[in-house]
Amino acid sequence: MQMINTDKAPKAIGPYSQAIKYENLIFISGQIAIDPKTQGLIEGDIKKQTERIMENIKAILEEAGLSLNHVIKTTIYLKNINDFPALNEVYGKYFTEHKPARATIEVSNLPKGALVEIEAIAGL
């Protein structure tokens, strides 16, 4: 087992790693729209927050020597399920030909008041 951390993604806001490599899998912790430069939640709507999250996931994967094409599954936690179409609009720009399995769940709240959180599993 190996921890994966990069300065190009936000530091963990609790006792966890950005990602863990276990055998041929990379488990990326749930990402909210934190700017890695300021460590603060970005302001903006669901589209802006989704874009920041996808860039953070991409940076973690790059640190592991992988790309978004290696993502097997994502789980998305939405504060408001009505944001689903706008989320898909941005998410779809990152997963064009390769489309991982996915679950999307509405939740009552997220850390720091985020609108969305995304976790991912990638394979080598």
Description:
- By secondary structure, the chain is α+β, with helices and mostly antiparallel strands.
- The chain has one domain (2-123): 2-Layer Sandwich (60s Ribosomal Protein L30, Chain: A), CATH 3.30.1330.
- 23% of the residues lie in helices and 29% in strands.
- The protein has two helices and six strands.
- The chain has a six-stranded mixed β-sheet, covered by helices on one side.
- Helix 2 (84-94) links the parallel strand 4 and strand 5.
- Helix 1 packs parallel to helix 2 (84-94).
- The longest helix is centred in the middle third of the chain and has 18 residues, at 46-63.
Topology (SSEs and partners):
Blueprint: E1 2-4, E2 19-22, E3 25-31, H1 46-63, E4 71-78, H2 84-94, E5 101-106, E6 116-123
Parallel strand pairs: 4-5
Antiparallel strand pairs: 1-2, 2-3, 3-6, 4-6
Helix pairs in contact: 1-2
InterPro entries: RidA, RidA_CS, RutC-like_sf, YjgF/YER057c/UK114
GO molecular function: deaminase activity
Family: Belongs to the RutC family.
